[in-house]
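hey so i finally got around to running the thing on that chain from the lab meeting. sorry it took forever, my laptop kept dying and i had to restart like 3 times. anyway pasting the input first so we r on the same page abt which one it is
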Amino acid sequence: MEACKRIAQLLEKVRNEKPLVHQITNYVTVNDCANITLALGASPVMADDILEVSDMVSIAKALVINIGTLNSNTIASMILAGKTANKLNIPVVLDPVGVGATKYRTDTAKRILDEVKISVIRGNLSEIKILNGIEGKTKGVDSTEEIFLESNNIEDIKLMAKSFAKNIKAAIAITGAVDIITDGETLYTVENGHSTMAKVTGTGCMCTALIGSFMAATNNSLLASLSGVTVMGLAGEIAFENLDKVNGGTGSLKVGILDAICNLNEEIILRRVKINEG
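ok and heres what got predicted. didnt touch it at all, straight out
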């Protein structure tokens, strides 16, 4: 319950402060990420040209780097923006989309980790495992691995996540059927969400945008990660419940997620969030 109250308080802070969140993201989900940032109450800017990223990130409260659609120009922009953010003590959130699918993609993510101090990494299980030097399984940009509370592997995954977070000194958020969030010391699992969310392109990217938005209003990377992951899962859950089961589909679900984020309040958070510590 304490964690839920802190999430609700941070949501209110985001809405009051309306922080600018600079996002260098992919062209598949850029509009969705901008809209979910606005729905939460923050202000998005999606600048990716190398000639302006330093100036743009210098007036932002957080930077989100998403490698979903890579090219050499945006990689250079990501590195420069990240280094500028580090100099100005602006937090950086990384979404290593599809790491493991190609050598180029994996090398790029590792280069970013080598050259930029990251506050939060949000990814699926295979992406996090690969960044941590463990073999993972991907299909395109999707994970073929999942976390289930009833399986025997969840304790191993928790240990891996805590170790990785401690080693790189960043919060790690692994999203899936069960979400795992840790800073290397404290660990939470979250059970909100719905499986249909996986049929909507960009729900992971939108979750990362939410984490970046929360990160823009706090220096607590664990709380920002927990807030973003929890709010996204909760919105997906509510959107599915409100879906017209005869005529509704994944398009309506995406709109419903935005509506749920926009209408989210403390009462809903306290009543519906399913968080466990440890």
